[in-house]
Model the fold of this input.
Amino acid sequence: MLYKKNIRNLVIHCSDTDDNKNLTSIDIHKMHLEFGWDGIGYHKVITRNGTIENGRPEYWKGAHVFGKNEISLGVCLIGRKSFTELQFNALETTLINWKKNYPHAKIIGHCDAIVTHKTCPNFDVKKWCKERGLK
Ligand SMILES: [Zn+2]
Done:
């Protein structure tokens, strides 16, 4: 279980899949099942056309940020390097909604959340949040 009062991080990811592939949360679900997980590890997925799809419910501990899943929610942008404006707008909407429910949670990129060799989500989350006026 995830407890609302414990949520400290809103973690942004990318799917690290080809930018031309229009994957959905179902595809990510299948991929993560193949890893032997209990299904999709993220709480939200944002498709290339900016659709916000549900992953795990927010009361269910995710599988996306090693060692910090107990205190984090995860959202994943489909793609690797170049994300669409529709995706960034949808991401902003997702984060604004989450911030209403989790006002004390910090928005961070996967690579800033933990020590990792990954560069996920492959853009500067801190800079982007500043541009969008998100805290
Ligand atoms: Zn990630």
Q: What stands out?
A: Helices lie at 25-34, 85-101, 110-113, 125-132. Strands lie at 9-14, 44-46, 52-54, 72-77, 106-109. The CA atoms of residues 16 and 98 lie 23 Å apart. Residues 13, 110, 120 surround zinc ion (CB under 6 Å).
